[in-house]
């Protein structure tokens, strides 16, 4: 109910009127049944524009920090995240990663759309980085297709750290679903998981023509932070 209200009454119409987002390939989104929407990640606003432009409800796995803030700001952020279909996950690894996987599998088990950013975090510079294999394991365990999605110019409209977005058009390009049924029963093979993940990243790179770097975005962020601290 909150999701429907936010999308169709409270926020959706206003966002569409201001930013006039465009979308290509909407027909590639399955009209029913579970699927993973695998997107590049340029801006916090990616999680707003993509669900807004799809006819079906979808959920994103979002870091738990967004749901634990205190005071009025924390409450507002928490309500916004819930209202836009976000689900809290712990990215600290180990048992937390397993819990995150199970959260995603529950969404897919209901026959819903699940949004995942394979890179695991926002790109620090607009490039496309190496994918984490959690998306492959989830796709194989749930036996669902993966739909590649490319967000366009959301990092220009709302760069990391900027609270007030720039009013401009942003876009979404959706590619044909990827079928990994040939790997049925191989979700525990780490080589298969890496192969599936890399295939997803290749599809994203071809769809959006981003420069690709075969390194994790989180590693690049750590390097940049170290350089900044050293100055």
UniProtKB/TrEMBL annotation:
Keywords from the named record: Acyltransferase, Transferase
Keyword Transferase in annotation: yes
SMART domains found in the cross-reference section: PlsC
Coiled coil start-end: none
Keyword Plastid tagged: no
Residue span(s) of domain Phospholipid/glycerol acyltransferase: 35-154
UniProt GO MF annotations: acyltransferase activity
Pfam families with a match to the protein in the record: Acyltransferase
Entries under InterPro entries matching the protein: Plipid/glycerol_acylTrfase
Name of this chain's protein: Lysophospholipid acyltransferase family protein
């Amino acid at each position: 109910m909150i999701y429907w209200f936010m999308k169709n009454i409270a926020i959706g119409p206003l966002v569409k009127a201001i930013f006039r987002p465009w979308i290509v390939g909407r027909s590639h989104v399955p009209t029913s049944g579970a699927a993973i929407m695998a997107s590049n990640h340029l801006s916090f606003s990616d999680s707003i524009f993509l669900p807004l432009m799809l006819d079906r409800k979808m959920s994103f796995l979002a870091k738990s920090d967004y749901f634990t803030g205190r005071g009025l700001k924390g409450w507002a952020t928490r309500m916004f995240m819930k209202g836009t279909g976000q689900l809290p996950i712990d990215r600290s690894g180990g048992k937390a990663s397993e819990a995150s996987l199970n959260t995603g599998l529950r969404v897919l088990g209901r026959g819903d759309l699940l949004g995942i950013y394979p890179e695991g975090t926002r790109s620090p510079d607009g490039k496309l980085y190496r994918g984490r294999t959690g998306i492959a394991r989830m796709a194989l365990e749930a036996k669902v297709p993966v739909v590649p999605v490319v967000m366009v110019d959301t990092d220009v409209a709302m760069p990391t750290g900027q609270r007030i977005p720039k009013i401009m058009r942003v876009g979404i390009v959706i590619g044909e679903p990827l079928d990994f049924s040939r790997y049925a029963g191989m979700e525990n093979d780490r080589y298969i998981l890496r192969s599936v993940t890399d295939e997803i990243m290749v599809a994203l790179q071809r769809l959006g023509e981003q420069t690709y770097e075969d390194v994790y975005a989180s590693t690049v962020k750590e390097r940049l932070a170290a350089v900044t601290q050293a100055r």
